[in-house]
Amino acid sequence: MATSHQASGIQAARLDAAGIAENFSDLHPAYDAHEAAVAADRCYFCYDAPCMTACPTTIDIPQFIREIQAGHPESAARTILEQNILGGMCARVCPTETLCEEACVRETAEGKPVEIGRLQRYATDTLMEKGVHPFTRAAATGKKIAVVGAGPAGLAAAHRLAMLGHDVVVYDAKSKAGGLNEFGIAAYKTTNDFAAREVDWLLQIGGITMDYGKKLGAELSLDGLTSAYDAVFLSIGLAGVNALRAPGEDKDGVRDAVEFIAELRQAEDLTALPVGRNVVVIGGGMTAVDAAVQSKLLGAENVTIAYRRSREEMGASRFEQDLAASKGVKLMFNVMPKAVLGNGSAAEIELEYTEVADGKVSGTGETVRLAADQVFKAIGQTLEGQPDALALEGRKIKVDASGRTSVAGVWAGGDCASGGEDLTVTAVAEGRDAAMDIHSSLMG
Amino acid sequence: MADLTTEFLGIKSPNPFWLASAPPTDKEYNVRRAFEAGWGGVVWKTLGAEGPPVVNVNGPRYGAIWGADRRLLGLNNIELITDRPLQTNLEEITRVKKDYPDRAVIVSIMVPCEEQAWKDILPQVEATGADGIELNFGCPHGMAERGMGSAVGQVPEYIQMVTEWCKKYYSKPVIVKLTPNITDIRNPARAANAGNADAVSLINTINSITSVDLDNMAPEPTIGGKGTHGGYCGPAVKPIALNMVAEIARDPQTRGLPISAIGGVTTWRDAAEFMALGAGNVQVCTAAMTYGFNVVKEMISGLSTWMDEKGYASTQDFIGMAVPNVTDWQYLDLNYVTKAKISQDDCIKCGRCYAACEDTSHQAIAMSEDRVFTVKDDECVACNLCVNVCPVEGCITMEEVPAGQIDERTGEVVSGEYANWTTHPNNPSATAAE
Q1: Which residues partner with A169 through β-bridges?
Q2: Does the bond joining B203 to the residue before it have cis omega, within 30 degrees of 0?
Q3: Which of the listed residues A124, A367, A371, B91 has the most CB atoms within 10 Å of its CB?
Q4: Distances in Å between the alpha carbon of A409 and those of A6, A143, A145, A237?
Q5: Predicted ipTM?
Q6: Can you give the pLDDT at residue A305?
Q7: Chain A touched by B321 (CB under 8 Å)
């Protein structure tokens, strides 16, 4: 017998296995061949296509859709993967509504873009299901390169470097590769262990050695890496989490959203994963939405996202906001946490309404209290554990357009590096481009 | 509501939409369903001579090509004439005509090129009470190998001869169905006319192979590893049919010869176009075979709506109206100047006009950094390709440059005077022609 929605406190088994399975099924189920054919037929094969320009990895979208139309989804996959080796994951998690599909001329014409993301998934799934890895390595260069961090940027860099003939060692502090693909994205966007399967598929290129449980600043040092390798690529992500800075933050039931999502992604059995009856998520980005929606899907009765600015300023796209709302998550805007209340464990949260003047948020003095036995902090991640030698820009490692850091022989990309939005697809682009620059600097 | 009643060769039907001789009109069951759906008439699927009926293949008999979203654009078939006994067909025709006296029932016939064969079958057909006959001189596959169908239609002398036999042994209207598998459609039409045909109908299907199975290396439809050419029809053949209808309509030797037009009619508009080019009615097959008999309902309502909008009280009011405007290239006005114009409000910025013009035409469209596409009047030759490739209907239009204005491409003032190739200074024969 499942625990009910109304059971107070943080409880497991609010839903039975069937309910969990239904809730965590694929958000956008894969196209079958007929659906793909119908969707592909809508592409106009635009000149200098806006969708392609909007793609951070510049995938030749009209070309790959034409290949699907012409009956060659595997060729389409190759077209995608040449530009974006994590094209399978990006097809699932890219906010296409603000990238390629927003730029699609059929969005202009009819308000209904070609479903590029789902077509990309159809192509890449078709190829990967056949177990085909379409790339081979160039002749060995004899160069050794270290990649620190096995997230999207690191994997993209490693694959490109290996393909170019270099030997690559990828270090990661965790015991598993994938970075946020594996630990940080909502489960319903990447079902059936896709992140891990994609890593296995990617590694088929050869020439990449994975070395887990190695953290920069602990087992690894930048000096040690630069002396042992011909080049170093850092893709260490953002390991730190911003604090609420509100009284009661230390109470039981208050935790980081990223930690909750990681635990959920790694859980063998989601019915065993506890969640609160009344969950409040503080923040406005994708992490906030992923934590809130998944709390609801686990069976929480009331889930609220509390964001301190307006809807327009929210980091999560309108699509994500609507997704949250459709799952029953309440969105509150212009409220900030004032205090977490409760006797040892969180029971309530006090929010203060805000106003924004000249970009600065301040409280209006009016407050509201919500029942909250679980509070997730999703107010941004920060760079942590970066080597002191590296110059920063803002709160990230400073890099130039090719990913070069201030230290010779060291490149960086992904969320830890300056520039770009913190998206899987931008991380892939940065990893790939840094790899090309490493290659030309080593071989030039 | 405009009156769609049509009188063709004195045969009345409630609308000009007849089903062509083909699988949809092979038997009583289908024809009754067609009449219930509203079709104005049918041409019963071709009857052969008395005796053992022909046989069809037992593998696939149709092939097709498709446009986007698998919309069927062209259909090919290797089916033969009716494979049911003559008497069965005759009995069914008799019953159907009796039950639907207001609908046109025409019987298609194909028998060997011998007078006796026609003399034998025609009285039997006459006895059914059907309104007329159509001579199948068109089928390009199967029967042609036996000296019938298009094998007759390709020899004008045979057309005339058989038509004369039919006029001799049959008292009602005789329609001669023409094959498009010839070089000049006017010759068989003239032959039919010379044989005193009451009308011609066209086009029959076009010889074709729709596709090749690349695994089995055989044409489709494939029968046991082999394929053969079949008859092609559907929307894809409409332009060919329109031209052939127009050629007959404007030929001095056949002008006024009634025409029943066939070839890709799918909506009311297709029918109106054929009729504007001189057809007294239209025959339909592929649209019905693709979507079922109910397609006629849109044809009826659409034609009626259009006629109301235009103020045509009957189909006679517009039949043939476009014929005087079909001319030879040499008489086209070379002083008529247009330029493409792109509506920025309607443009969705796909850039297909740019790609088409820049890569394959006259480099007359400019593309700005922010994807604004504009026509360069000093380069535009008004070819219309941009209009044709634009996915948004009406977004790109051809605008006439009025007389007195300068054509920026040539730098010359548009005269507004009609002038054609026959008098053009570049024409070596221009002086001689005068």
Answers
A1: A146, A209
A2: yes
A3: A124
A4: 57, 13, 10, 19
A5: 0.89
A6: 98
A7: no
Q: Which residues of chain A have pLDDT under 50?
A: 1
Q: Where are the alpha helices (DSSP H) in A41-96?
A: 50-54, 61-69, 73-83, 87-93
Distance CA B247, CA B427 (A): 25
Q: Which residue of B has its CA nearest to A34?
A: B69
Q: What pTM does this model have?
A: 0.92
Instruction: Please state the length of chain B.
Output: 434
The DSSP line for B303-344 is HHHHHHHHT-SBGGGTTTTTGGG---GGGS-TT--EEEEE-T
Contact residues, B window 61-90, toward A, CB-based 8 Å cutoff: 68-70
DSSP-derived letter for residue A216 is B
CA atoms within 13 A on the CB side of A212: 7
| C-alpha of B195 from chain center | 23
List the structure tokens of B84.
Answer: 């049911």
Choose among A255, A311, A263, A315: nearest CA to A281: A255
Q: How far apart are the first and last CA of chain B?
A: 51
User: Is the CB of B350 less than 8 angstroms away from the CB of A47?
Assistant: yes
Contact list in A for residue B69 (CB cut-off 8 A) is 38, 41
pLDDT in tens, B237-263: 999 999 999 999 999 999 999 999 999
**Angle between the N-to-C axes of helices A33-40 and A116-129, in degrees from 0 to 180, rounded to the nearest 10:** 140
d(CA B371, CA A168): 42
Facing residue for A46 by CB, picked from B68, B69, B350:
B350
Of B68, B354, B392, nearest to A47 by CB-CB distance is B354
Q: Look at B348 and A106 and tell me if their CB atoms are within 8 Å.
A: yes
Are B392 and A37 a contacting pair at CB < 8 A? Answer: no
Q: Which residue of B has its CA nearest to A48?
A: B351
Q: What is the DSSP letter of B278?
A: T
Rounded CA-CA distance B137/B195 in Å is: 14
CA B399, B404, B408, B409 dihedral sign is positive
Please list, in sequence order, all residues whose beta carbon lies within 8 angstroms of the beta carbon of residue A305, skipping any fewer than 6 positions away.
Answer: A281, A283, A284, A288, A289, A292, A324, A329, A330, A331, A332
Task: Using alpha carbons, list the distances in angstroms from residue B132 to A66, A154, B136.
Answer: 51, 80, 13
Q: At what angle are helices B186-194 and B238-250 packed, to 10 degrees?
A: 50
| Two tokens, residue B397 | 């239009």
Q: Report residue A259 CA to chain centroid gap.
A: 14
**Angle between helix A116-129 and A73-83 (nearest 10):** 100
Q: How far, in Å, CA of A94 to CA of A129, rounded?
A: 21
pLDDT of residue B141: 77
For residues A301 and A324, what is the distance between their CA atoms, to the nearest angstrom? 14
Are B69 and A38 within 8 A, CB to CB?
yes
Token representation of residue A360: 């600065």
Which is it for strands B365-367 and B373-375: parallel, antiparallel or unpaired?
Answer: antiparallel
Please say if the pLDDT value at position B431 is more than 70: no
State the average pLDDT over residues B303-329: 97
**Which residues, at least 6 apart from A32, have a Cβ–Cβ distance to it below 8 Å?**
none
Catalytic residues of B: 139
Q: Give the distance from CA B186 to its chain's centroid.
A: 15
The alpha carbon of residue A229 and the mean position of all alpha carbons in its chain are separated, in whole angstroms, by: 29
Residues A76 and A62: beta-carbon distance below 8 Å = no
Q: Which two tokens stand for residue B156?
A: 């004008």
Cβ distance B354 to A45 less than 8 Å, yes or no, reads no
Q: Give helix then strand counts, H and E, for chain A.
A: 17, 17
- Identify whether B402 is preceded by a cis peptide bond (ω within 30 of 0): no
Query: In angstroms, rounded to a whole number, what is the distance separating the alpha carbons of residues B270 and B262?
Result: 10
B68/A41 CB distance under 8 A: yes
Question: Chain A interface residues facing chain B, Cβ-Cβ under 8 Å?
Answer: 37-38, 41-42, 44-50, 105-106, 108-109
